Write a sequence for this structure.
DNA sequence: TGCAATTTCGC
DNA sequence: CGAAATTGC
């Protein structure tokens, strides 16, 4: 390659790392380009046939706007963003040929799927004599680097968290690289963002998402700054009250890599020290779920506790639809589902309540709920979504025991005692504190509870008991 | 990061 | 006798 007459050209291959701050691959590419007096181009390749699962609708919406923001951010650094669609191997090879690229750099993927993509990319690049340099990563600690004393991966969160927070100080985040000087990279053909067809059109259901979010690195930074100035120190005491704006709302930004967890960790510790730990513990769950996904690539569909493959799930599409649409007749459950439908996000406390309701009250398979949220959440993450569903369902590695059944009315009384959250999303329900006379005129439109929670709880516990051989009958 | 029944505590 | 701790699902 050194004999090539073409100027040095490095390619940054972007996936779930749509930012310029703390970006090891971009930083290294720009360093190399400077060293060789060359240029850098970035590429995003949408290869849905290769994906382990198609991106959900809300995620597609987010990705569109995140790519739009990223193109601007990169432009400021003198790096054009090329969009491609189709077979990863072909597209990557074509881009490398067209641009006479000498090296492809990426942040090492942190899911089994992204690692397979890297293997495919290497295969495609080898005949071209072009190396793939994968480094950095999107976690605080690489998913195979935190091990128990006996060298095994952790299966329990608390010791994992202890090891992570005490023995694995995350690497310091890298600054955004300095912009390249004037000059242009060899032109590589690409698609327009619109032609990727990531946005919903008929109908356009994204109005609520547009009002709720600013995808992209600048939006992530805004969320982070607001959280750092405001509620991070109160997070531990306030986070469970869904009517309060006490959470960070950073999850979709982390999902698409618009903010690196190392930057987040660094900023929280720098400003709040130990007061930031209750929040960082949740970032620790994100790490834990990614580490789990590495051990169990089938985590999205296969229960980690094998006995749960025999669980007597019910099969009732009509009841599932009521749950999805927020028509269960339990205001806290329905409020959560409507917040999700309208904004692409749901408060974490309410996620636990609605998930428990699906799995334990309705006895419907957790995989149905996982798929629903995969499609509707803007933060739908291949590690967190299955990991959290398995946790709630009691079939995860370090799960809540199955007999922990959330009582929706008690949860509402504890965490939304004035009914503010429930009335915000389900105004037609008569939540506590409502003017009963006003509510009476509209109550007809709100369904009665679809089941008796006490009876449902008994049924769930009986179903669990059926998994274990009865010691008396052996 | 559950709930409810039961026992013990503290006055 | 109500609050708090304990226990089992």
């Amino acid at each position: 390659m050194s004999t090539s007459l073409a100027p040095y050209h490095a390619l940054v291959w972007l996936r779930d790392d749509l930012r310029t701050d703390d970006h090891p691959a971009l930083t290294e590419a720009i360093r190399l380009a400077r060293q060789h007096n060359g240029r850098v181009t970035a590429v995003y390749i949408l290869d849905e046939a290769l994906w382990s699962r198609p991106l959900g609708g809300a995620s597609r919406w987010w990705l569109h706007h995140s790519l739009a923001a990223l193109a601007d951010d990169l432009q400021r650094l003198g790096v054009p963003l090329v969009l491609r669609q189709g077979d990863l191997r072909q597209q990557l090879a074509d881009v490398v040929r067209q641009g006479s690229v000498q090296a492809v750099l990426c942040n090492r993927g942190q899911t089994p799927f992204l690692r397979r993509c890297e293997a495919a990319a290497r295969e495609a690049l080898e005949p071209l004599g072009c190396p793939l340099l994968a480094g950095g990563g999107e976690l605080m600690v690489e998913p195979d680097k935190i091990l128990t004393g006996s060298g095994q991966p952790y299966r329990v969160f608390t010791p994992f968290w202890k090891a992570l927070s005490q023995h694995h100080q995350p690497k310091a985040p890298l600054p955004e690289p300095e912009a390249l000087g004037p000059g242009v990279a060899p032109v590589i053909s690409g698609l327009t963002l619109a032609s990727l067809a990531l946005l919903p059109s008929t109908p356009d259901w994204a109005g609520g998402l547009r009002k709720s979010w600013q995808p992209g690195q600048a939006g992530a930074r805004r969320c982070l700054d607001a959280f750092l100035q405001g509620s991070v120190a109160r997070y531990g005491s306030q986070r469970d009250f869904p009517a309060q704006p006490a959470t960070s709302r950073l999850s979709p930004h982390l999902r698409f890599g618009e903010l690196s967890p190392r930057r987040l960790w660094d900023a929280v510790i720098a400003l709040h020290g130990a007061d930031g730990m209750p929040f960082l513990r949740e970032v620790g769950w994100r790490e834990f779920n990614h580490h789990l996904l590495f051990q169990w690539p089938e985590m999205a569909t296969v229960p980690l506790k094998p006995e749960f493959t025999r669980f007597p799930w019910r099969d009732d599409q009509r009841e599932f639809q009521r749950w999805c649409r927020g028509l269960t007749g339990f205001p806290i459950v329905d409020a959560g589902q409507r917040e999700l439908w309208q904004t692409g996000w749901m408060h974490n406390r309410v996620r636990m309540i609605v998930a428990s309701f699906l799995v334990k009250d309705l006895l419907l398979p957790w995989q149905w709920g996982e798929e629903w949220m995969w499609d509707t959440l803007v933060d739908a993450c291949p590690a967190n979504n299955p990991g959290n569903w398995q946790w709630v369902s009691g079939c995860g590695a370090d799960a809540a025991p199955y007999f922990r059944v959330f009582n929706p009315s008690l949860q509402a009384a504890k965490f939304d005692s004035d009914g503010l959250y429930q009335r915000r999303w389900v105004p037609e329900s008569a939540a506590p504190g409502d003017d009963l006379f006003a509510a009476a005129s509209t109550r007809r439109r709100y369904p009665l509870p679809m089941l008796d929670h006490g009876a449902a709880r008994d049924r769930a516990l009986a179903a669990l008991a059926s998994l274990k051989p009865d010691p008396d009958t052996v």
